[in-house]
Amino acid sequence: MLDRLLDMSPTLGGDTLLLLPVLIMLELVLSADNAIALAAIAQGLKTEELQKQALNVGLIAAFVLRVALILTAGWVLKYWQFEVAGAAYLLWLVYQHFTSKSDDEDSSAPKFDTLWQAVPTIALTDLAFSLDSVTTAIALSKDVLIVLLGGTIGIIALRFMAGLFIRWLEIYVHLEDAGFVTVAFVGLRLLVRVINPEWVPPEWIMVTLIFSLFAWGFSKKVEESAVVDSKVSLMTEKAETEPLLAASEEKQPETT
């Protein structure tokens, strides 16, 4: 993302440190949908303590993979297969999320039995997102140290954001769905870039769509949903019981 912003960046000469604020902003913008996906994955563990441990350990592993990606970016960018693999993985996560809701079992039930089942999923998910953010950062600056510093700050921000989203996912009804739709956008963006870079939609369209989805995600709290569901349940129960009561009264014998 933010390709247009990067294109408008002035020539910075030898003072590459001036690029750091741009890279930090880039990482923060790209971390929002990533953070929701990681928070939803961590929620698959049974306890809050395990969720925190999964994020801590998973993002340490993600940082190692991110560094490896930055150091080998010149080689990785030569092969479109990496972006296709990243896109396929993200779209698979989206498919898993939405199809699990149609299962008979409770979709909120823990998806992982142990910490070490969740950690690889967190690390690989961040790596798939990094194919988008790191390749954009490399296009901005060839200074590996600056890109590494931006990536490090991005991981730290991602950890705090994911922690917040774990709590928010319990409060806002549509937030998880909104997050995974944005994950689908990132996956499709990677895929379209491989097929034909000219087909990639303008940045302002992507940003507008993502902000709109987040606005929808934060539009309804669980308490509001619970009240509505309770009212609907009571109305349904009343509609079902009234005919039975009426029939029962008709069958009662008259007393003299």
From TrEMBL:
This is DUF475 domain-containing protein. It is found in: Membrane. It comes from the Bacteria. The chain crosses the membrane at residues 20-42, 54-73, 144-166. InterPro entries: CHP03716_TM_YkoY, Integral_membrane_TerC. It comes from Leptolyngbya foveolarum. It is a multi-pass membrane protein. The keyword Acyltransferase does not apply. Pfam families: TerC.
